[in-house]
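Subgroup meeting minutes
Present: P.N., E.W., G.H.
Scribe: E.W.

1. P.N. recapped why we're keeping a running log of single-chain structure predictions: easier to compare across weeks, and new members can see raw inputs and outputs side by side.
2. G.H. added today's entry (222 aa).
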Amino acid sequence: MIRHTTSKTAVLSPGSVASLIAWVVVCLPGLAEPARAVDSLKLRNSFAEPPREYASAPLWVWNDRLTEEQIAGTLRDLAEQKVRQVFVHPRPGLMTPYLSEKWFKLWKVALREAERLDMNVWIYDENSYPSGFAGGFVPDAMPESRGMGLAIREQEAPIQIDKDTVAVFRPAGEGYENVTSQAKGGQELARGRYLVASLQWAGTSGWYGGKWYVNLLTPGVT
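Output recorded in log:
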């Protein structure tokens, strides 16, 4: 063990000295070995034709109605251009149903051909992006997960209140007065400008598989 004196000088006990000597005997010979020389010519030549894990990896867009011949043919075309890995990237316009039996059949074709061509095929995490809606499967399973935002608009009295209204503010001097309770309670507000904050729900879009984006904070979505 190491014992510290009041003068902050480290003093090794006899047992620690023996341990240190043993460490030097065991470890220093390995540390003294010279580093292996790098074959710079071999490394330089690898830039001309790198192994597949260092090759270009473009997004391989899957849309339209795909066929097995298209899948195999595209991989062959890419391999001929020294592209040796791809990310299968579903995008809007996809006609082959996402995650369907046909979808996985095409994937098997891609994997089989990629193995023959010595290529990597990577799984993109979504049908389009951003992640989270699973190509429309999450909205279908959880309608309550619809994405939402907060929209703040200027209105003139009388204020239109509905179930999505969050808060109402009236300009007051250099700030704003919160009149939410009065507005929601049906109290008539003086004429003038008001700021109304309301929930704004995500709309449907082909970008999201004909559905809508989800609220990632809704329990169960993840």
